[in-house]
Model the fold of this input.
Amino acid sequence: MTMAAPLIHLQGISRTYRNGELATTVLHDLDLEIHRGEFVAIMGASGSGKSTLMHLLGCLDRPSTGRYLLDGRDVASLERDDLAQLRQRTFGFIFQSYHLIASASATENVEVPAVYAGLPRPQRRQRARMLLTDLGLGEQLSNKPSQLSGGQQQRVSIARALMNDARIILADEPTGALDSQSGQDVLALLSELHRQGKTVIIITHDAEVASHAQRLIEVRDGRIIADSGPATPPVEARDSAPAPTAGPSDTAVASTLADTGEAVRMALRALRANIFRTVLTLLGIVIGVASVVVMLAVGNGARQEVIERISSLGTNLLLVRPGAPNTRRSQDGLTNTLTPLDAELAGQLDNVVAAVPEMSGRATLRAGNTDYQTQITATSPALPLARDWSVVSGVFLDAQDNQRYAAVAVLGRTVADNLFGPGAAPLGEYVLINNVPFQVIGVMAPKGATPWGADQDDVVFVPLNTGSLRLIGQRHLNSITVMIDDLSQAELTQEALRQMLLHAHGGVEDFQIRNMASLLENVADTQNTFTVLLGSIAAISLLVGGIGVMNIMLVNVTERTREIGIRVATGARTRHILQQFIVEALVVSAIGGLLGVAFGLAFAAGLQAFGTAIEFTSGPVLLAFGCAFATGLIFGYMPAHKAANLDPVVALSAD
Ligand code: ADP
Ligand code: MG
Done:
């Protein structure tokens, strides 16, 4: 028994703190052996280096020189995460100031080490309750630390130290903050743990407290000045059976899922603990996401509306205009190039349903005492077909009207309203157009405005021949609208039309043909740009929301540095801390994203109710939510990274 390797073996350990130029050596060349099952008190005045020694013993800190063999193994070779794992299985810490997580209940505090050991939640909970009940806290299981007395808090921290069935209990001034009765209780508990076979190391400045231990080591100015030597350990002293830690059977995926679930629960708890701040952060994300959703819905709605208006003009139309391509139509001599004959020829092409000539001029109309200026369009009977526009009363012009040069007119809704009163159907009445009497034979159905805002109903239609001869006084057309049958052949038909017109015009391309489909594409492109612009403005507000998340997470990390220290001391690895803070950022962003989407959709629906064109698509919604989530991830990473890499000793001593 006496020849067994010591559990703890320090060889020439020293610890030097460096502050820039200044180096303070706190521990000098310590040699120390502690065996399994010992109950050791390390006693010394304040500032003698006891806590520093405890941090080294507990693998929270590394020595500057010397070797530390734990169970015969040199811990210097271990990485940060290996040390965390070692602590989690080996040490239970009890601190003078308890170091409980303020936002967590007694049970949740006790559970923390088991979370990182991967013990499933129900078992964890059950064991934590059992430990607390054993320590007389059965009634206070769900109390927060602020609802417990000092003695009770210290018992919670003892339960936490026992959670993973640690082999070594390290207690730094465990009674320092307690009244004498609570102090006695805690010491009795530690003695009991020693009897159960644990190795207990208690640090104190108080000789009375130290007298409870079997072995007394005195420290002064970082040196051991007295050591009563190892006592014979109790007969039954042995490492107790392993704690109910998670078996290695856990698959990585399952444990990651369990970790994430736990991280989400912890995140929600942390966010609830500071509800006002959480709400403010949420607000930033909510506004950002909602504006993305609304802006894109409005942008897409406007685009859809324009497309619909243009489509209502007909996508199966080719529009022939006079004048060579890329010349200004106002230049005289270039515009008088289309003739009614061209329209007739166009009408005979394959795949052409109708070719409608239009010749326009302005004229003054008079009915009774009312004068009205409007546009006269001389055209053919096929116009209602090509423009998908019918008469609401009476009839449209027919072929005979044209042949007979008949003085008949079909009024647009606006014209009829202005001359005869709203809603009138003045069939058979006469109007004077430029002092020529025309009989009204029909009124067009209202058509509304063009995509560019002109009133399409402010027009009077007359037969082409009549208009040309008696009203407009010329033979040249403003346009020919060619309606095609098979849209898939549109390109071919357009080319045939061009060849035909070129031939008719002696090889001179003094006309241009536009098709509505390509116009539509142009307009849609323009509208897309508009939508992207709106979207980017909204994205900026989302970015601002993201910076809010980062800000709050940084504050969070700073505020909860001690909590991070506690978690790391009890076995949390870098990835656990990283995960916890990223999950917190993600939870805020996800909640903000969901609320934002809901508000955005509600707001857009409100706008729609007031007549704004809105297009609801899943794209922007997913985009906005995805952006919020990504924002949380990106802006949460930096603070999380900062938290995960805190030095445990520094983190623990933060206030
Ligand atoms: P004890 O726990 O015995 O009261 P500590 O181990 O806390 O003593 O501290 C021992 C000495 O080391 C003190 O003089 C203290 O000022 C110094 N010290 C502790 N931590 C640091 C640090 N991070 N940087 C510089 N000096 C430190
Ligand atoms: Mg101390």
The chain is about 45% helix and 20% strand. Residues 407 and 438 are 5 Å apart (CA to CA). Residues 270-306+522-652 form one domain. Confidence is low (pLDDT under 50) at residues 234-250, 329-333.
